[in-house]
Amino acid sequence: MTSPRPSRLWTLPRSAACVLAVVGCALGATGCGLLTRDSAQGERITTTPGPTDLVASAASDGEGWETGFSPPSGYGKSLATASGPVMVLCIKAADSSRIVDETILAALDPQDGSLRWSLTVSPTIESRECTTSRESAPQHKSASASDTVGSPGPVVVSPDGRYISLQLSSNESSTIAGTRAGVLVLDAATGEMVRTLQTTGLVLGQVLTDSDLVVQTAQDYVPAGSGTLTVAPLDEPEAEPSTLRTDQWLVGSASDAVLLSPDCLPRGSAATFTSTTITEMSAGGETLATIPAVYRVLEAGRVERYTDPAAANDAAAAASSPNPAWAATNREVLDIETGDVLAASNADQPLVPASNTKLLTITALLSVFNGTETFDTTVVSPAPGQLVLVGGGDPLLASAASGGHPKRASLEELAAKTAEKLKSQGLSKVTLGYDASLFQESWATTWLSGYRDQVTPISALWADEGRDAKQVRSTDPAGDAARIFATQLAAQGITVEGSPATAKGSGEEIAKVSSPGVHALAAAAMETSNNSYTEVLGMQLARKLGQPTTFAGTAAAVQQELTRLGLWHEGAVLYDGSGLTRENHVTASMLAGVVRYVMTTPRASVVQEGFPVAGVSGSLTNRFDDEISTAGRGIVRAKTGTLSLVSTLAGTTVTADGREVAFAFMTNGSTDGWAAQVWSDRGASLITGCGC
Questions:
Q1: 30-34, 161-165, 218-222, 536-540: least confident range
Q2: Taking a C-beta distance cutoff of 8 angstroms, is the pair 268, 149 a contact?
Q3: Does residue 325 carry a pLDDT above 80?
């Protein structure tokens, strides 16, 4: 391969290149007065004037300037625009358990780094970089815009540098069709809103030309079959958008065109990609040009391509060899009936399992418990007129009574029973304490602070998994449960004096409610791959086996039981029960062995019953959809595991000759998580179609 040469070059004016050019996952904002837009679904985009005290310092060294920022909290990135640099800050709520809920944009004067305008945008931008990080925003120094940015990201700048577009966070929906998100376009010079756009479906990418916003959506994770380009003119903000259908990926834009590719290309400085042909298309759908031998798309329509056609052909030929994601996949396939190893590659090398850790934790749990055990939430009275709410580690405890299966215990039911008992004693006023001391730890030291939107601090006492009506996770789930209980007692005619406080849970039992059985609790954890439920059950396992009710105790209990069963492998190590930590390491052979165990052990059958079905349910609903992996749809049942650079799949399938097999695929380190998933799906499907 010869050295690449950039083509279609474009650079910002020197006056606009006062910052590092930005990032792939960036952010956004708008207007200088209060501006709102309502979607058809009632979602509201709000922009208000932002803080004016963000610039902490500004200094010049003769070659440029340097500005320090002091955002309330969060993480910062910078954008290069024609009017100067714009800082994008992801701001988290005062409650540290919440995910980032707003974005601040701050425009700087390109001459001296002073603040020109700032804006607060809500909802926040759609960005994985908007975590609850406590890092300060970085400093920025005038320089050429040397760092390139891939165009189709959550925050993009138009080629002429006039506009900023922000993809805002989507609503929560269990289906892609039900997903709604907003896109906001701002004037980079003033911060004023140019237009908004509401999308339906999964947003695959967005770009700006000098005159249009173009957003690609689909009803799947790839454009094939349902890809739609929505084109919204910027010079006519009220004009109805037009739509175009395409099976290609939106990969960039130029001043007057969008760039499409049959492949999902890496952005910016990503590793070299096998060449493809880019189609340059007008906003009206007219093909303007084709650009062969492209291996990377940069900002503003720039591309990098091979200058030697032969080298491009060689690269294309190399692509026909096994995908790197597959080559790096550790795997093992077992005959469930005999235990014979049918296929294996690096099966004894420990790798990060991600959520497949749950498979180990729940298997150990069901081996120790018979499945009918329940966990009680009780009210005790240390003295007349004094109550203590005592948590028993029921992960499914609800605030209000409801139907459904399994029937959950609720604080509402417990309050009614408690009030009935108190009234029989002639009591109508009480004090209330609460005791959640059954568990000794609430947060794993190996978890990132940004995981607070993924898991509630673990507690023996909570209601609704420690979430409020907006699904925001509590930082004090036990205290919140006690306060809910106090309100419910009041509704039953019992006055609670003062505020609930921690107390020792001893004395006469007044009332109790019981969780569903362990089998049902385990099924709930597996079916939804619920991190919080699994960690609570891990604590219960630790308690049952005499280990401390800590995360280390959970890990020790899982290892203890799997060792007894002959399923623990040398080199494996665990630090939690759910798989959120990247410090966990197990082998593909170990996972495949555990799958075989649950398939051959009746008391553990709930584990395999909780496996999603390929192309049908759970985390596999939208997988197994290409021409190779479709063979596994409806047949493969497996647990997924996903973290950044980690993709695992462990489960069962039935081969073409009727043999039932267990398998485990583990990939660590692939920068293309989608490819890693695809190749695991294909591997499981190839097994399904073979006569082995």
A1: 30-34
A2: yes
A3: no
**CB neighbours (10 Å) of residue 657?**
8
Helix (H) or strand (E) holding 99: none
User: Is residue 689 left, alpha or beta, with left meaning phi > 0 and alpha meaning psi from -120 to 50?
Assistant: alpha
**At 420, which amino acid appears?**
E
Same domain flag for 111 and 62:
yes
- Judge whether 449 and 96 are in contact, CB under 8 Å: yes
Q: Which domain holds residue 468?
A: 376-515
For residues 343 and 532, the model is more confident at 532
Residues 449 and 567 in one domain: no
Reference 83, options 19, 3, 179, 175; nearest CA is 19
Cα–Cα distance measured from residue 381 to residue 418, given in angstroms and rounded to the nearest whole number: 11
- Beta carbons within 8 Å of 216's beta carbon, 6+ residues apart: 152, 203, 204, 205, 206, 223, 227, 228, 229, 230, 246, 249, 250
CATH of the domain at 310: 2.130.10
Q: 572, 590 in Cβ contact below 8 A?
A: yes
359 has pLDDT over 80: yes
Q: Are residues 298 and 396 in the same domain?
A: no
Question: Alpha-carbon distance 220 to 212, whole Å?
Answer: 25
Q: Which CATH number fits the domain that encloses residue 341?
A: 3.40.710.10
DSSP code for 359: H
Q: Which residue has the tokens 């440029």?
A: 64
- CB–CB of 116/55 below 8 Å? no
Together in a domain, 216 and 314: yes
- How many angstroms from the chain centroid is the CA of residue 376? 32
Instruction: Let me know whether 141 and 182 are in one domain.
Output: yes
Which tens digits make up the pLDDT trace of 184-234?
999 999 999 999 998 888 888 899 999 999 999 888 767 877 889 999 999
CA angle centred on 96, ends 38 and 72, rounded to 5°: 75
Domain count, the chain: 3
Percent of the chain, pLDDT > 90?
49
- pLDDT for 97-142, tens place per residue? 344 467 888 898 888 888 899 998 887 776 544 433 333 333 333 3
329, 315: one domain: no
Amino acid at 424: S
